[in-house]
Amino acid sequence: MEAPGQLRIGKRSALLFGAFCILVLAITLHVEYLYYMSLALAVTPLLAYAIGWQTLRAIEVRRDSLAVTQTGERVPMRLSVTNSGGARRGLIVVRDHLPSGLQAEGLAERRIMDLAPGETVTVDYPLVARRRGVYYLGYVELLCTDPLGLFNYRQERETQSLLLVHPRPVSLPRVRPPAAGMQTLSRLRTRKRGEGTDFAGVREYTPGDDLRRIHWKATARRGKLTVVEYESGEANNVAVALDLSPTHHAGEGDDHTLEQGVILAASIAAQCLRRGAEFSLIAEGRDSYSHRALLSDRAEPLVLDALARVRANAPQPFAETLVGFEPWLPPGAGVVVISPLVGGEAVAAARRLVALGHGVLWVSLVAPTFATAGPADEAAYQELARGLLGSRCAVRQLRRGDSLAVRMGVSIGAR
Predict the structure, then answer these.
(1) What's the pTM?
(2) Domain range for residue 154?
(3) Residues 6+ apart with CB under 8 A from 274
């Protein structure tokens, strides 16, 4: 679209030089019409500039897109270009400029060869949301040239619109914080048939059942293999506490401790709400994104909205946040802590939660493995794990490149 700078300068120079030569010839020969030719050539660049400048003034641009999507989704984008002037407009180039984290599939650009008065042309293209967040879709660039190609013109048109990209939950094994203190809080238990200590009954054996659970007396009486079933207790209230303190977070882009923590929090929220458990989110940065006692999968968008917006910018230490939210937690709740925090304050915060009757699953985001430089010294995280296990917490460690589904199913003792 844009003519090379030297070519444009050459065209303008040729017109001005031609006008000068014709003027000299007109003076020499005293031919009147040569004066007019010289004047015409001299004013041609000025007329061309005025026409090109006027072209973009009459162009209006509107952007239409979805307001909410998820990471990895293709989002249809449409730019509507309208000629609001009274004359036809020649070649125009429309370019969309996207923030980092959004990627256009193909060219977010179109050449409009001719635009009649009042006519609207649409530019459609898909983009892919690569990363969760809040994106302000800003300006669209308009480019054109005059009919002679002497000048190029560029204008930026603000078309402010907002695109909220939710983190995409992944499928996880059943997340079950330890049921600390649940013996006295039977009304807060969810009774599930499976492994446990409370007798639920007997049933016919099915392939895959543990042979140690065969009830031999019932088998002899019925004449077919019969196994014992137990009930297991687990918290029916689950709270996820996401560390938004910038102190220990590390990494870049998608390989960042906070991004992995956000995906894990979104996945646990989706799992809990879809199975009917009560879910709470503790996410305190400069702004509060916490939600309390949500029920049913209709509340899932509220959690995903919050997790799309969180940043590691909390002004207070994460351990202080946990202490401050202790009265906020439902009695006997299972608490999933997602944090890169290490040290005695982490163990102390976990012990306080256990002492209050909460079951705690502590997910350590092992920050050294996310760092872009330096050795991955994980000794502090191993010491933290020992302290948490001694405080009757379940522990998981999440390193860069780990599969969430695999890691959440493996306890620290089984690693």
Answers:
(1) 0.75
(2) 59-166
(3) 297, 300
**Which residues are CB-contacts of 322 (< 8 A; sequence separation ≥ 6)?**
241, 282, 337, 349, 352, 353
In a domain, 387, yes or no: yes
* Cα gap 213→159, rounded to integer Å: 66
Nearest to 275 by CA among 234, 313, 247, 317: 234
CATH of the domain at 154: 2.60.40.10
Structural domain contains residue 214 = no
Whether residues 248 and 144 fall in one domain: no
Estimate to the nearest angstrom the gap between the alpha carbon of 43 and the chain centroid. Answer: 55
Cβ neighbours for 97, distance < 8 A, ≥ 6 positions apart: 108, 138, 139, 140, 141
Q: What is the pLDDT along the chain (415 residues), one digit of tens a residue?
A: 444 555 556 666 777 777 778 878 878 888 888 877 888 878 787 787 777 777 788 888 998 888 999 999 998 988 899 998 888 887 888 888 888 888 888 667 788 888 899 999 998 888 899 999 999 888 898 988 877 777 788 888 888 788 999 999 999 888 878 764 433 333 333 444 444 444 456 677 766 566 777 878 888 888 888 777 654 444 578 999 999 999 889 998 889 999 999 999 999 999 999 888 889 999 999 999 999 989 887 899 999 999 999 999 999 999 999 999 999 888 888 999 999 999 999 999 999 999 999 999 999 999 999 986 655 678 999 999 999 999 999 999 999 999 888 888 765 543 3
